[in-house]
Amino acid sequence: MDLTGIQNALKDGDINKVGELTKAALDEGTAVKTLLDALIGEMDKIGVRFRNNEIFIPEVMISAKAMHAGLNILEPFLSKSGIKPVAKIGVGTVKGDLHDIGKNLVAMMFRGAGFEVLDLGIDVPIEKFIDTAKNKEVNIIAMSTLLTTSMGVMKDVIEELKKTGLLDKVKTMVGGAPVTETYATSIGANGYARDASSAVDKARELLGLLKRQI
Ligand code: B12
Fold first, then answer.
1. Which of 130, 136, 186, 203 is most buried (CB neighbours < 10 A)?
2. Starting from the edge strand earliest in sequence, which strands make up the sheet with 140-144, in order?
3. Could you tell me if 116 and 201 lie in one domain?
4. pTM of the full predicted structure?
5. pLDDT in tens, 39-88
6. Which residues form the domain of 59?
């Protein structure tokens, strides 16, 4: 299947068409990963056009909705592989930040790798991360942000987890476009990854899970 149709529909923000074409491509046997890469690649381009002021928030918003339509179709296929969860992860976009595409991709990749995922949503307050670490038996707290203004919240969460002694039982991971390995280390995060699939590898590494177990 020619993926440019899906990519053009994403660019045009045609929600129904992205959903329909993604489904049709899957039915024709196109690999889930190929479709995911095509959608992410086009969303990246939309990001560049937004940055260059070639398009504005409403256009980006509608494309983001169309992106979700495609991701929703792919999700069950990515999630299929795991029967029994290998570990549990709580993932959310930190307080002040409403971006969720990257966070959703991270959640999807973890589900696909057999993890149980507790999606905490967007604009997640510090207390919610702490409550999740304390009461929901997660092995990892994963935080996402796309805004430099919200990066400090990740640090606050880690400090609060440290204060309450919860860092003994949960690992922390951070990510999102402005986050770097250096920043992650500086705030005491256990792990950082630049994209959703390396996030899964990093989580496995942190939990001492062998790849073949998953
Ligand atoms: C789409 C988008 C929006 C959409 C969001 C829709 C949605 N439902 O998410 C809308 C239009 C609503 C929006 C709003 C705003 N946005 Co905006 N947005 C973007 C845009 C174009 C793309 C982001 C995206 O989805 N990328 C695709 C995903 C797949 O990438 P990702 O999120 O980075 O995730 C990957 C990795 O980072 C990693 N990852 C992500 N999270 C995690 C977590 C962990 C634990 C790990 C390990 C890895 C990981 O894995 C992901 C997949 O591989 C970016 C530009 C850009 N190129 O990044 C601007 C951008 C992020 N936005 C920006 C801004 C300023 C805003 C607004 C403040 C604009 C405004 N003036 O109102 C508001 C913010 C409102 C708020 N409070 O949150 C700036 C941020 C600048 C900064 N450095 O702080 C950017 C960079 C644009 C720019 N250059 O100015 N935005």
1. 203
2. 116-124, 88-94, 140-144, 171-175, 191-192
3. yes
4. 0.81
5. 878 877 887 787 788 988 788 878 878 988 998 898 888 766 443 567 99
6. 4-79
